[in-house]
Amino acid sequence: MNRCTLLLCAMSLATSCALAQTGPISKNLTTTNGSVVAVRSFPSNALRGTLIVQAPPEVLLDTKADRLSPGARIRGANGMLALSATLVGQTLPVMYTREPNGMLHDVWILTELEAQLIPAKPSYSK
C-alpha cells in the first residue's frame, strides 16, 4: 500500500517538473534607472511581427492576410491566455510560431519593453 502512494507522488513530481519547463522562461534585466524588469524568452523558431485580428480566425500579420490554427494559443502581455475575439481591431506587437500547415499557432503579445528590445526584423534580413 505505501509503495503505491510513493510511486504516485514520485510520478506526479516528475510530471510537474517537466511541464514547468515547457513555457517561455523570463529573464531579469536592469534598466538604466536601476529598476529590475522581467523579459520573457521565446522559442528559437519564433518570429517577430505585428498582428491585427480582424474576424477570428482571420488576422493580418505584417499587413498580409493570415489565419489562426484551430488550436492557436494567444498569450497576452501578462502571460495569460487571451481570446482572439477580445483583440479585434487592435494593432499588437507579437512573437509567433507557425504549425506545419503554415497557420499561426503560438502567439505572444509583447509588452512595451519587449517590443523595444526585440527588433521587428533581424538586421540581416531584407
What would your notes on this structure say?
With 126 residues, the chain is α+β, with helices and mostly antiparallel strands. Helices cover 20% and strands 39% of the residues. The chain contains two helices and seven strands; from the N terminus they run αβββββββα. The strands form two sheets. A five-stranded mixed barrel has the order 3-4-5-7-6. The model is unreliable at 17-22 (pLDDT under 50).
Give me the secondary-structure topology.
Layout: H1 2-20, E1 26-30, E2 36-40, E3 47-55, E4 58-61, E5 64-75, E6 91-98, E7 104-109, H2 112-117
Parallel strand pairs: 5-7
Antiparallel strand pairs: 1-2, 3-4, 3-6, 4-5, 6-7
Mean pLDDT: 81
Shape category: globular
Could you give the distance between the termini? 65 Å
Helix % is 10-25%
- What percent of residues are in strands? 35-45%
With strands numbered from the N-terminus, the spatial order across the biggest sheet is: 3-4-5-7-6
Which stretches are poorly predicted, pLDDT < 50 over at least 5 residues?
17-22
Question: What is the H-and-E element order?
Answer: HEEEEEEEH
Biggest pleated sheet: 5 strands, mixed, barrel
| Beta strands, count | 7
Which structural category fits the helices and strands? Answer: alpha+beta
Task: Give the assembly state of these chains.
Answer: single chain
